[in-house]
Amino acid sequence: MSDVLEGRCLCGAVKIQVKGRYDPRAGACHCRMCQRWTGGLFLCFEAAAEAVTVEGPVTRYPSTAFAERAFCSTCGSHLWMRDTDREDTGYDLMPGLFDEALAWPLRSEIYADRAMAAVRLEGDHKRTTRDEYEAQNPFIDGDV
């Protein structure tokens, strides 16, 4: 997708523009770290690093040795999760920041076997269990 997306946090202090490559489908994660961060379910969409422009007060939290989570310093809205071990790593942006995301389908679900009962997702999207995901990503320490 190559349209321009404009999103903002709850208070409007942080504005995010995506201009260029992004995937207009949401991915879901049910790992314990994401459950703690969001209160239940982490949703994101992927955008290339060079496509993303951010303005406003952002706090970055190093949630693991290889990734950060970011939020608005004013209102606390979650903004993204991003790997930090490479400079060219794109963003996993929160779709709720962007009005266009209301129509986007679900692309995939990871840690599907760890979903809280209240947020189990229906549909025929790709599902990956904890064991399957961690076997494909050996750098994860198993604590998520």
UniProtKB/TrEMBL annotation:
Q: Kindly list the GO molecular function terms attached to this UniProt entry.
A: carbon-sulfur lyase activity; metal ion binding
* UniProt cross-references to InterPro entries, sorted A to Z: CENP-V/GFA, Mss4-like_sf
Its domain of life reads: Bacteria
Gene3D superfamilies in UniProt: glutathione-dependent formaldehyde- activating enzyme (gfa)
PROSITE patterns for this protein: CENP_V_GFA (PS51891)
Under SUPFAM superfamilies, the record lists: Mss4-like
Swiss-Prot/TrEMBL keywords? Lyase, Metal-binding, Zinc
Could you tell me which residue ranges the CENP-V/GFA domain spans? 5-105
Q: Which family does it belong to?
A: Belongs to the Gfa family.
Q: What is this protein called?
A: CENP-V/GFA domain-containing protein
Q: Which organism is it from?
A: Leisingera aquaemixtae
Q: What is the lineage of its organism?
A: Bacteria, Pseudomonadati, Pseudomonadota, Alphaproteobacteria, Rhodobacterales
